[in-house]
Structures are given as structure tokens and as C-alpha cells.
Amino acid sequence: MGHAGGRWQEASDDSEEEDEGVALSAESEATLDACSQLRNNAGFWLLGLCNNFAYVVMLSAAHDILSHQKVPEHNGTGPIPPSASPENTTTNTSRYDCNTISTGAVLLADILPTLFIKFSAPFCIHLFPYGLRVAICVTSAWGSFLLVAFSTSTTQSLLGVVLASISSGLGEITFLALTSFFNSAVVSAWSSGTGGAGLIGALSYLGLTQAGLTPQDTLLFMTIVPVIMLASYCFLLAPPPQAPRCGWGVCKPKSPRAPSVIQQPLLGDRLTLPQMTQKPQLTLQEKEQVAKGLLKYLIPLSVVYFAEYFINQGLFELLYFQNTTLNHPEQYRWYQMLYQAGVFISRSSASCIRIRKIWLLAILQCLNMVFLLFAVTYMFLPSIYVVFVLILYEGLLGGAGYVNTFHCVSEESKPEHREFAMGVACIADTLGISLSGAIAIPVHNYFCHLP
After folding, report:
1. Could you report how far apart the first and last alpha carbons of the chain are, in Å?
2. CA-CA distance, 162 to 139, in Å (whole number)?
3. Where exactly are the structural domains of the chain?
4. Where does residue 14 rank: exposed (0-12), middle (13-18), buried (19+ CB within 10 A)?
5. Is 330 within 8 Å of 67 (Cβ atoms)?
């Protein structure tokens, strides 16, 4: 009896030890998951920051790019004699202080390549590994800073802006598609990072030029940003088992403890990972159905971005106040910085505030655009600080439209459709921006030819 009791006691002890081992294993896995989630959130935040950085800086530098304010003795902090900017003579007969070329031209150079990429990519981008796409993004962003910094003509500068657009457009559709393999929290991290790019990009350009650096030296200093993007993608992300775990197009072997994968990444890894369950490719008809289902979010988002970028690139330059200590280039940089500050705040607010009525944001942004258009036409605003408040409000609306649209798309899409849906949703804001740039140029020319 005692012997049996001893065996029972030993079995009980073994059972308790096994339970403790399971508990410790579960606790360690939970800790590992929390650590991985923290890394992924940080990684996507940095990817969002770096991806949009060059795009934002080019818009912040638009006035300088068109004015060629790269000589140290002026540095955008004082009036520039005509000899310093032969390609950009101010229109003396107009009531407005205008560039000969609208900053909308920089916007178009910064967005049209993105528009082309986003329209074509959802249907063919799955043929290219994620690593290759990231390599193109990094190289294009780095080249854009160098080309604009050393440019000797407006045409060369605009080519540099085009490179920034290629990097931003390809990066956005790549990284948003990549979020479909991760916890949905990374969408908020990505969105916050893109908002941070606006604020940090505009503020750093403003701060460095105000501190005495020329626009050229400022752009050269910013070549570190593409390197940070590369490091974030290669070393910071902790991809889950179902994610494409790839470097420069070479897939790493799956962990032996990883569970079976239910999704096939967009890399064609059939030879590398034959044991994976293949996700069937969506047919053209299925893709059309997914796209149609997203229109209730995408159309309002396009309107939001059309209105705000019409303000930014069509009206900012015309909202010039002479009764301040800031000259025209400085005022333009402050407008861009305040707008990006509003975008950053609202894009980082998704965990606190969710808005599903994107059409309401579109209406408010259009009202903002109409009011500022009347302000430019009749010049009735008494102070630049009123414009500062309106621009901050504009950024809040735009950032809220972006982050809430992508959250709605991510939550309402079926798992097998989510990767494609997130890529298609990228088209909406780009289309709105492109239309605003095309309209901003003739509007700018109209106002600048008024007596």
C-alpha cells in the first residue's frame, strides 16, 4: 500500500513538473510574442517614416527647388536677387509673390510615378520578391537626395523628385501588403510612421535651413534615411511564420517549430518551401469584386487628398503675408511643417479614435479648401496665424482619413483578400493627389497673372 502510494506520489510530482514546464514554456512564448510584436511595431513605424521621408522633404523644398536657393549667402532667409535665380523670375505685375513655375509641378513629379506604380502593382507585383522591392526603394530614395542636391537646373531637380516618388509609391504598396502577414496592430504603427515622416521631414528641413545649412547640405545630410529603412527591414522586423521571411530575394528556411502556413506570400516560394500550403491566386473577377467593395472608403479618401493637396500645392505659395518677420520661403516651410504636424497627430490616434464615416472628413476638407481659396482671392485674412491654425486643422483631417480608411479596409477584408485589398487601397490617396496637382498648376497661373 505504501509502495503504491509512493508510486502515486512520484507520478503526481512528475505531473506537477510537466505542468510547471508547460506553464514556463507558455510564459516564455508569450514573452517572445510580446517582444516580437514590439519589434514589428517599431519596424513598421520606422519603415513608414523612412518610406515617406523623401517624398515629404521634396514637397517641403518645392519652393527652394524652383527658386534654386542653394547659395550660402541667402539660404532661403532673405530676398534673392534676380541673378541668383535666373530660371525663376518673380511675376512683378501680379499682386501675388509667385514662382514662374507652380509648386504643383513638383507635386506632379512627386506623385505621377507613384500613381503609375499603384495602378499596375496590385496585378503584377506578386512576381517580385519583397527584398528586391525594398532594394529598389532604398536605392531610389538615396539617389533622389543626391540628384536634387547637386542639380543645376529645374529639370534635373524634378528628375530627382521622380526618384523620390518611385521609392515612396513602391514602398507604400509593398509594406502595406506586407502588413497582411502580421498582427493588425502594425497598420497603426505604419500609419503613425508615415505621419511622423511628414512632421520630422518638414521640421528637419525647416530646422536645418533655419540653422544655417544650405538646402543642398540639408539634402545631403538626409541620405542617412534610406540606410535606416534598409536596416529596419533586414534586422528589426520579427516576421511571423506565415510572413515572407526574405532578404534580398533569398528566402530563409522556415523554423522547425513553426506551425503550418495557411497563406502563400507573394514570392513564388514553391521550390524553396514545398511543404507550405499554397494560397490560391485571386482571379481577375475576384479582384474586381474586392475593388468594388472598397469604393465606399476609397472615393471619400480620394476627395480628402484632392482637397488638401490642392491647398498645399495650389494655395500655400499664394498665402503670403508681408507683415511678418518670416519671408516667403520661410512661410512656405512653416506651412508644410504645420500641415505635417496635424497629419502626424491624427495618424497616430487610431488606437484612441476610430472614424468610419470617411465621407464626413471629405466634406470638412472640401469646406476648408473653399474657404482658403476665397482667402487667396480676396485677401481678407488679417494674420498669418489664422492660416497656421487652418493648416494644422487640414493636416488633422487628412491624417484621420488615411489611417481610418486603411483600418476599415483591413478589418472588413477576408483574410485571403486582405493583401490585395491593402494594395488597392493605396491608389485612392495617390489619385486624389495627382488630380489636385494637375488643377493646381492652372489655378496658380491664373492668380499669378492677375494685375
Report:
1. 111
2. 13
3. 30-69+95-240, 282-450
4. exposed
5. no
DSSP reduced 3-state for 246: strand
pLDDT tops 50 at residue 81: no
Mean per-residue pLDDT, 108-128: 82
Closest to 183 measured CA to CA, from 283, 43, 373, 336: 43
For the entire predicted model, the pTM comes to 0.67
3-state SS, residue 420: helix
CATH superfamily placement of domain 30-69+95-240: MFS general substrate transporter like domains (1.20.1250.20)
- Among 196-205, 377-386, 406-415, top mean pLDDT goes to 377-386
Radius of gyration of the chain (CA): 25
* 30, HSE (Cβ side, Cα atoms, 13 Å): 6
pLDDT digit string, tens, across residues 397-429: 999 998 899 888 888 888 888 878 887 888 888
The answer to whether 291 and 123 have CB atoms below 8 angstroms apart is: no
Matching residue, cell 488606437: 351
Neighbour tally for 441: CB within 10 Å? 18
30-69+95-240 matches 282-450 in fold? yes
CB 406 within 8 A of CB 358: no
Lowest mean pLDDT of 2-6, 83-87, 305-309, 337-341, name the range.
Answer: 83-87
CATH 1.20.1250 for domain 282-450: yes
Cβ neighbors of 409 (< 8 A, separation 6 or more) are 294, 297, 421, 422, 425
